[in-house]
Amino acid sequence: MVLSELHEELRRSVRDFVAKEVLPVADVLDREEKDIPDEIIKKMAALGYFGLVFPAEAGGVGLDHLALVIVSEELSRGWLSVGSVLTRNLITGILIQSHGTEEQKRRYLPGIVSGEILTAAAFTEPDAGSDTAGMRARARRDGDRYLITGAKTWCTFANRAHLLTVLARTDPDPAKRHKGLSLFLIEKEPSDDFDPPRIAGEPIPTVGYHGMHCFTLGFQDCPVPAENLIGGPENRGFYQLMAAYESARIQTAARAVGVAQGALDLALKYAKERHQFGQPIGTFQAIRHKLADMATEVQAARQLTYYAAAMKDTSRRCDVEAGMAKLFAADMVERVASEALQIHGGYGYSKEYSIQRYWRDARLFRIFEGTSEIQREVIGKRLVEG
Question: Which residues of 203-234 are buried (b: 16+ CB within 10 A; e: fewer)?
């Protein structure tokens, strides 16, 4: 896909931002497992990155999904965690814009789109991830409010969030499965302490994806105003999530492309600089062929992702295209990052070299935002059913 001058200029501007603001601190923050600094997030907000696909009347920039993909790719090319800051606001923002009440749109959307309100998703449970219908967290109506009780896990950036988007069961009949789920907006103060027993949080130690910690959250009769049920009526949460997942998976594929491109850049640079037997290792056929395969895979994933983004902008259903992009990019980035580390030899396994950060981050893509196994199942089912 050939990009317009607007998209090319957007890519150049994001690449410049990453070079100045992200790359100089990424390795240190990753090594020390510190959160992304507020200064970086505020600068991203000022540049309009949180509002790319939202209309101007909502305070957004009014660009297309291709613009979102380009920005996400370039941010992740520097550090996956920075590219992922956008994901949570994207999901919650789309849910409110597409399904929220007018009051919810008025109250939350401008802040989400501007980046003043940071959000986190609390969907996954200890015993239910991709099996959304198996969710057990319960939301019980109590007058003009709901009381939410249950556990959620892999809630990324939950400590920094002002707003949690929580999926809970409003119909206690287990036979209703996905038809008995609703989405709620829970306000909170950004804090590592959360607000026990209303909301308790425990960080999850992770191999990579540092810069934005993941948490297991516990809700104990957490009160939520009834007006914070997304859309108003109960039991629509599963269906509301489906369209948001299309955008999220396209954006996740873009993040994978960015990480893979970053790993390829490092491998190419090292292949030109590292000398063995009196010549750069990039002159050896074995290395050149690795680089050729890596570059081809990155470009293939990029084009698949761009196509899915273009499909999304037509307002047509694109769950298959989004799933294909996410599936291919997730498998691709693991292969590319592994080969990039291999090209670095022993130095690739040293924390003194950035490539190990890309390698650790790459492994996550086959797991989050829908596992590769789930993507294959969804794609295959749609193909067979037509």
Answer: eeebebbbbbbbbbbbbeebebeeebbbbeeb
